[in-house]
Amino acid sequence: MLLPLLLRPSFSPPLTGCVRGLHGSSQRTLLSQCEHLLRRRRPASRLPTRNHSRKSRGQEEEWRTRNKTVLTYIAAAGVGMIGLSYASVPLYRLYCQATGLGGTAVAGHDTDQVETMKPVKERIIKVTFNADTHASIQWNFRPQQTEIYVVPGETALAFYRAKNPTDKPIIGISTYNVVPFDAGQYFNKIQCFCFEEQRLNPHEEVDMPVFFYIDPEFDDDPRMARVDTITLSYTFFEAKEGQQLPLPGYSYN
Amino acid sequence: MSTAMNFGTKSFKPRAPDKGSFPLDHFGECKAFKEKFMQCLRENTFDNSKCRLQSKDYLECRMDHQLMAREPLQKLGFKDLMDPPPSQEGSKP
C-alpha cells in the first residue's frame, strides 16, 4: 500500500517517508514494514546513495560516450595508416619525379646534342674499361685499352675484343654498367654492341667498338665535381634459344 | 648491383644506345683502321682528343663496308674535323 510510496525515489531518506506513513492505520504492520525496509537497505548501504548513484550513472554514460569516441578515432587512424601504406607507392613515384632523387632524372640528351655540343677541354676524365663474362659463356672477352682520357662533350671510341675458342658458334648478349652510378646518367652511348645478340663462329675473333660521349653538363653538376674516373664495365652472357631477356627499351628482331 | 633490396639507394639503370648496336666486323674489314687508332692511343698516352682523326677514319671505314648506318660526320660529333668551307679558317684537329 504505502510501500510503493516508500520505494519510490525521493529526496528524503526512506525513514522519514516511513515515519510519515505511520499516522493512522496499523502502525505495527507499517513499523515492521519500515524496519524490514531499513534492514534491507542497510546491507545495501555500500552502494552510493541516491545522489551519488545518479551522478555515477551520468558519469558512466559520459565515460561510455568518451570511450566510444576514442575508439572511433583509433579505428579511423588505423584505417588511415593502412590506406597511406597503399598510397605511398604512387606518391613516392610522384615525389621522385618532382625532385629528381633516386636516379630517375636523366640529363636530357638527344641526338641533336651530339652535333651542337662543345667539348669542355678543362675537365679531363679517365674512363677505365672492364670486361666480364658470365660463368657459362666460353668467350674470351677483354678490353683493348685499359683506360682512355676524354673530356665531356667530345665523342670517343674504345674497343673490346671477343674470341670464341670453342668449336661451336656461341651467341652472346651483353649489358653494361657505369660506376659511379650518378655519373651513369651523363654517359651516353651513341653506338655499341650491347643488348643485341652477337654471334661468334668457332675460333673467330672480332673487335667490338663502343662509341660514346660524356654529356657536357657533367661539368656543371656539383655532385660530379670530384668525379675524375668513370668505369665502364661490360658483361657478356650466353643467349639461349627462346629466352627473352628483359632489356631496357631496346627492341631487336 | 641492382639486385640488392636496398630501398632508397640508387641503382644503375642501363640505357639503350642512341643508334643501336654495331654489327660485328666478322671479316676484319676495318681492322687496319682500328690498329691505327690503337697505335695512336698508345703513342699519346691514351688521350682521346689526339686521336680523333683516326677514330673518324675508323667510323668512315665502317660506313663504307655497310657495318654502320651512314650518317653525316657532324652528327657523330666530328664537326671540328670536317673540311672547313672555303670562307672559314682551318679547324683544329
From TrEMBL, chain A:
Segments for region (Disordered): 41-63
Principal localisation: mitochondrion
Keywords tagged on the record: Membrane, Transmembrane, Transmembrane helix
Localization (cell): Mitochondrion inner membrane
Known partners and oligomeric status: Interacts with CNNM4/ACDP4. Interacts with RANBP2.
UniProt biased composition (Basic residues): 41-56
A Pfam cross-reference name: CtaG_Cox11
GO cellular component terms attached to this protein's record: mitochondrial inner membrane
Species for this entry: Poecilia reticulata
InterPro entries: CtaG/Cox11_dom_sf, Cyt_c_oxidase_assmbl_CtaG
Role, per record: Exerts its effect at some terminal stage of cytochrome c oxidase synthesis, probably by being involved in the insertion of the copper B into subunit I.
Single GO term (MF): copper ion binding
Membrane topology, record value: Single-pass membrane protein
Protein name: Cytochrome c oxidase assembly protein COX11, mitochondrial
